[in-house]
């Protein structure tokens, strides 16, 4: 069972018996494809290179085998301070949801959620980050050195490229989402 509740300035997510609490950063887009095709693209690490902005973030698979609960990935941002982190898939709902937990780094203990909801005109794809930043050095990077803005830009770019790939349109060499497109509701819970 997957639920979310709002409590003050933070959100609480419950996945099975585990509870995750933190601020929310959320982006979404509508892709004119079935959720099954989108889910397969998100879980195929070979296709990751086609939509993930790998020129700005490196992604390496840590665990061998098929994409499943327990799959681990290592990320390194190519930005001012070049943060690194590992995540592990902790929950999968075929064609609906992928949840990974941050094992270390700036969002340690937080979760990343890819949620796929079929609509009449396609599938609503929502990327949600539930996080708490515990170390002061990470807070400086996130709030003062542009980390949050960089995260937003990379997430929007990834969603735009995912949409372009699946809808078979050709993105420009340095695509950025058109104003008003690719970006759905972005929720940032106040501190």
Outline the structure in words.
The chain has helices spanning 35-43, 45-51, 136-144, 147-166, and strands spanning 2-7, 10-15, 18-31, 57-61, 72-77, 84-93, 97-102, 111-119, 122-131. Helices cover 24% and strands 38% of the residues. With 191 residues, it is an alpha+beta fold. It has one domain (24-166): Alpha-D-Glucose-1,6-Bisphosphate, Chain A, domain 4. Residues 1-8 and 178-191 have low confidence and may be disordered.
Question: What is the CATH topology assignment?
Answer: Alpha-D-Glucose-1,6-Bisphosphate, Chain A, domain 4
Shape: globular
Helix content range: 10-25%
Number of domains: 1
Query: What is the overall pLDDT average?
Result: 85
Largest sheet: 9 strands, antiparallel
Assign the CATH superfamily. START domain
Order of helices and strands: EEEHHEEEEEEHH
Strand segment count: 9
**Distance between the amino and carboxyl termini:** 28 Å
| CATH secondary-structure class | Alpha Beta
SS-based class: alpha+beta
Uncertain residue segments: 1-8, 178-191
Strand order of the largest sheet: 1-2-3-9-8-7-6-5-4
